[in-house]
Sequence to fold (319 residues):
Amino acid sequence: MAGLLAAGLLLSACTGPAAEPKATAPAAAPVDSGPLKVAVITHGTAGDAFWNVVKNGAEQAGKDLGVQVEYASDGDPGAQAKLIDNAVAQQIGGLVVSMANPEALQPSIEAAVRAGIPVITINSGEEQSAAYGALTHVGQNESIAGQEAGKKFKDLGKKKLLCVIHEAGNVGQAQRCDGAKSGFGGDVQTLQVDISNPTDAESRIRGAVQTDPSIDAVLTLNSQVAARAVSAIKSVGSKAQVGTFDLNSDVVAAIKSGDVLFAVDQQQYEQGYLPVMFLKLYRDNANIVGGGKPVLTGPDLVDKSTVDKVGQYVQRGTR
Fold:
């Protein structure tokens, strides 16, 4: 436990800007003498490798800290809000929630805060986190991450970038592409695809690079979409090269083979693990990590120089 406390203190130093917390946040830890029960509710879709790693992190934290963790997810904002409402009705001791569509979740999150349930947001919704009453936000700053990806392509001499958005209405993905435009400083276009229809996503990417041969860089915002982009580019003999957000075993192999230039790793295992630890510290010792600002888990760029070291952790489901 001492080691975990130290880790929490060290990570609190890695922060970025956020709105000042409002008075709706709980002033003191709820009194609860029993085992801590935490609900982790995300917008992940079924079978998404990224969210499986988040789940692994949360469940491992539960095992390490003696916390009961229940994970649920739904990509539909309305359904995700209902999951939050159900968790609140069960009088959970803590809530961890991702906010890809913050406005849809606002009433449910604020209801949890009013019920005295401490909330930590993860992954997306950093700007709204404090305003909705969350204790802190854990994730990467999407704009900064996008800027780093754009700069990487610029440094590699690319001239025209296609940024592929795979979830309509996801504020974090829009921020990534906007950041990429800022970091790239050149010609950037966006393309909307649907992650739940991989075949159509590949077809749309193929059509984009085939129609515009000047596109020499493609940035995907998800590891599964990256594989589709690689396939699409190869099928039409395009000169475009792929960079992506997030890692899985396919992306690791693609970086090693040169099919993918780099991956922006937000270390999502921490987005599952750290909030459970922070809620445990809050319940047991009234600690709030971050000083009112988010705890950043990324970005970390993984390329050929680092992929061998990182890849071993991808295989075990922790990167």
